[in-house]
Amino acid sequence: ALKNMVKSKIDNMLQNKIIRESHSPFSAAIVMVNKKDGEMRMCIDFRQLNKITIKDRYPLPRIDDTVDALCGSKYFSTLDLFSGYWQIEIEER
């Protein structure tokens, strides 16, 4: 049952162009985690990749500075990216 669930999630990600087929000798383990609602979330164990990734560090703006910058503004918007953790593109080499 778990294998079918993983295959279904991978097929869905392929169809939605979140991932693509690869013949790379490198891979990362898939870990299935129970969600509070009883469903399963597919996670990828990127610990080995994280060890060699160059960190992109920059300070987050302070909330009070952000609120001050918005003072006097008339229009606001919000953005909620679906499955936001898949929204970061990786440079191909």
How would you characterize this protein structure?
This is Reverse transcriptase domain-containing protein. Pfam families: RVT_1 (PF00078). It comes from Daphnia magna. The two termini are 36 Å apart. The longest helix has 14 residues, at 2-15. The chain has 93 residues and is of the alpha+beta class. The chain is built from 3 helices and 2 strands; from the N terminus they run H-E-E-H-H. It has helices at 2-15, 47-52, 63-70; strands spanning 29-34, 40-45. The protein has one domain (2-71): HIV Type 1 Reverse Transcriptase, subunit A, domain 1 (HIV Type 1 Reverse Transcriptase, Chain A, domain 1).
Give me the secondary-structure topology.
Elements: H1 2-15, E1 29-34, E2 40-45, H2 47-52, H3 63-70
Antiparallel strand pairs: 1-2
Label the overall shape.
extended
Task: State the CATH architecture.
Answer: Roll
Q: Let me know the number of strands.
A: 2
Q: SSE string, helix = H, strand = E?
A: HEEHH
Count, helices = 3
The percent of residues in helical segments reads 25-40%
Strand percentage: 5-15%
What is the terminal-to-terminal distance?
36 Å
CATH evolutionary superfamily: HIV Type 1 Reverse Transcriptase, subunit A, domain 1
CATH class: Alpha Beta
Class based on secondary structure composition and strand pairing: alpha+beta
| Total of domains | 1
CATH topology (fold) name:
HIV Type 1 Reverse Transcriptase, Chain A, domain 1
**Unreliable spans:** none
Protein name: Reverse transcriptase domain-containing protein
Pfam families: RVT_1 (PF00078)
Domain Reverse transcriptase: 33-92
Organism: Daphnia magna
